[in-house]
Amino acid sequence: MNYRRLGSAGLKLSELSLGSWVTYGGQVGEEVAVKCMSIAYDQGVNFFDSAEAYAGGKAEIVMGNVFKKLGWARESIVVSSKVFWGGDGPNDEGLSRKHIYEACRKSLKRLQLDYLDLFFCHRPDPNTPIEETVRAMDYLVHQGKILYWGTSEWSAADIMRAHELAREYDLTPPQMEQPQYNMLHRERVEKEYLPLYREIGLGTTIWSPLASGLLSGKYAKGIPPGSRATLPGYEWLRKNTLSPHNIEKAKQLEPIARDLECTLPQFALAWCLKNPNVSTVITGASRPEQVTENMKALEIAPRLDSAVLERIETILGNNPQKSQD
Ligand code: NDP
């Protein structure tokens, strides 16, 4: 395993990491989580991602129980959570000082930890001034409850504003963003955030590197039983992501993976790893075998030379650097 710095911070994250969205506390239980997390940890994964919203808090409970059961040294892992969707009450969601403070305490309790390494604002909150959010995060840092804070799916302009406010008032600035990034979804990471890597040393912990499993190629011949697209509540996945256009792109990429002597998921993850502005690729898995397979992407990444990358661009046709605007 290689480790990358979280942008300009001293913290080092494994290039591949593991998340708990959809899976823990929902699609699969603790037994599967123990196996998946153990395989990942044994391969050198140090970063485990969760959020208050995942399975209504159950994902954090599962992860916390696994940490406890496996007894890993706290220093050997980097644990994150995210605040935004905490419940139904008027103050149970968003990025107010109140919800940030309460969400952090509840996440720590569910995870059975004293502090979070990373704490993300899961979405921008138009109903809270950015300054209130920056001050609330800074307060948690000073309390020793979180070490770094960041954003998820914020615009570059809002991240920059948060950074400027932090600098102006001597508060802790955001260090990282958690954006979607995969072969079918590139604009933000490859274009919009470019100035932020240079100017504020932004790190990125990218999500859905397989576009929810589409880039594993498994949907080429319909929807396999037990896959994410069969789960209740994921109709949007079937409607949006599993479009004929996207399924066709995945099919066209297969021959390149074959030429590289790897599977399509390994190839798709390796492609994400090639971007130096990605601090870590957060993988997801509903089965231990998927973790084992996906970890091998690390060996594949060096095989993606400029000729291979050019072949990929020809198929994808969505390079943000080549778009007109
Ligand atoms: P992926 O796009 O990699 O999708 C993972 C899913 O794809 C798995 O659960 C599994 O689903 C399928 N899969 C994985 N590996 C294979 C394989 N080798 N062969 C076949 N199928 C495979 O990542 P996620 O969408 O899960 O996102 C990763 C993490 O990112 C999340 O767990 C979460 O921590 C974070 N995230 C953050 C968000 C944010 O807003 N900040 C939003 C979404 C995710 P199945 O077997 O069920 O079909």
Task: Explain how this protein is built.
This protein has 325 residues and is α/β, with parallel strands linked by helices. It has a domain at 3-210 and 272-285: TIM Barrel (Alpha-Beta Barrel), CATH 3.20.20. Helices cover 42% and strands 13% of the residues. It contains 13 helices and ten strands. The protein has helices spanning 30-42, 58-70, 97-111, 130-142, 156-168, 187-192, 194-200, 235-241, 244-259, 264-273, 288-295, 297-300, 306-316; strands at residues 3-5, 12-14, 16-19, 47-49, 78-83, 116-121, 146-151, 176-177, 203-206, 280-283. Strands 3-4-5-6-7-8-9-10 form an eight-stranded parallel beta barrel, surrounded by four helices. A two-stranded antiparallel ribbon has the order 1-2. Helix 1 (30-42) packs across helix 2 (58-70). It starts with a strand and ends in a 9-residue tail after the last helix. The mean pLDDT is 97. NADPH dihydro-nicotinamide-adenine-dinucleotide phosphate binds at residues 19-23, 49, 122, 152-153, 178, 207-213, 216, 218, 227-228, 265, 282-286, 290, 293-294.
